[in-house]
Amino acid sequence: MEEYILSEIRPSDRRSIRKMEAMFEKEGIERDKNLDYTVGLYDEEYNLLATGSCFGKTLRCMAVDSNYQGKGLLNLVVTHLVEHQYNRGNLDLFLYTKCDSAKFFEDLNFHEIARVQDKLVFMENRREGFSKYSDNLAMKKVKAEKVAAAVVNANPFTLGHQYLLEKISEENDIVHIFVVSEDASLVPFSARYDLVKKGTAHLDNLIYHNTGEYLISTATFPSYFLKDEELVIESHARLDIEIFKKIAESLGVTRRYVGEEPFSKVTNIYNRVMKKELGECGIECVVIPRKENENGAISASKVRSLIHDGRIEQIRDSVPQTTYDFFVSTEEGMRVVDRIRNSSDYVHY
Predict the structure, then answer these.
(1) Rounded distance, CA 84 to CA 86, Å?
(2) Residue 232 belongs to what H/E stretch?
(3) Which parts of the sequence belong to the N-acetyltransferase domain (predicted)?
(4) Helices (runs of H) and strands (runs of E) counted in the chain
(5) Model pTM score
(6) How far apart are CA 300 and CA 315, in angstroms?
(7) Which of 110, 166, 269, 318 would disulfide-bridge 123, Cβ 3.0–4.6 Å?
């Protein structure tokens, strides 16, 4: 019986990294940029036979050398990664896989949440995870003629976000606002959620939600089996929309609003795909033009740029007073300012 060795592959282990990248090239996949733990499965002669990685609560970059497929090696890798995640406190796990691999992960007790036909399946290890999330949303359902939704990251909350939500509030009876809860932004979720609520306190028909793990962001989307950058974004958008359709059904939403996006390539593609996909299932997608000030369209990226460059006073005409006060008058806000000023990745494409 063959003996296998499971060993962590650290970023400094260049020899193992080269072996892993050679395997990826052989199997036609690309190493994901977002990884925080990687393991290799080796034979007794220390040949790399399989590998897998984690990032946050996701499993990703799983591959088996084609010469050793069918021997149950990926099962060993996935079992190890799940155990590793449990040991660091991540009990709710997620993965993306190709459609033809979904059955394999079902046998390992992962359950489908949504899929983009012929491309991607989004799965989790809790049988009723998404259904419980959806049921909790349904408890906040309010029957009305015009029910709308919007998803905001608000990194940070600007006058542009406020204008968008004011327009939605004015045009609808009930508005469900989802704040992206993944902490991949320079402004943490708890602060973003609070700033959204404070910046819209004058609107009385808004209902606030977090996105949980389900309305996903590009930071958690593994692109290792989609070579084309635009294809990655489009596939992610379609998967996001499939999940949103289920959420819309739970809440009776018939409109989704988005802000016009002149700056972000990702959001631009999202909006284009969303308008088409939602329209086909009877949900109107409404694009609201950007609010402008004397310096042009207001954006969170511009606000972060000003903070990064030490010009925080100049964000006054781009953010509500509540957001400005957060940055200059609270300990948490000042810590976020330091984080932005020390970051090299403060403007997203």
Answers:
(1) 5
(2) helix 229-251
(3) 1-128
(4) 11, 14
(5) 0.85
(6) 10
(7) 110
The amino acid that residue 48 corresponds to is: L
Scan for tokens 């939605």, then name that residue. 168
Does 212 map to a domain? yes
Asked if 179 and 196 count as a contact pair (C-beta separation under 8 A), the reply is: yes
* Total number of residues shown for the chain: 349
For residue range 334-344, list pLDDT tens digits in order. 999 999 999 88
Phi (first) and psi of residue 298, to 5 degrees = -80, 135
The answer to whether 95 and 59 have CB atoms below 8 angstroms apart is: yes
Contact of 60 with 53, CB cutoff 8 Å:
yes
Q: Are residues 113 and 228 in the same domain?
A: no
What angle, rounded to 10 degrees, do the helices at 331-341 and 189-199 form? 120
Query: In 144-254, at which residue ranges do the beta strands (DSSP E only) sit?
Result: 147-152, 174-179, 206-210
**Per-residue pLDDT for 224 more than 60?**
no
79, 61 Cβ separation under 8 angstroms: no
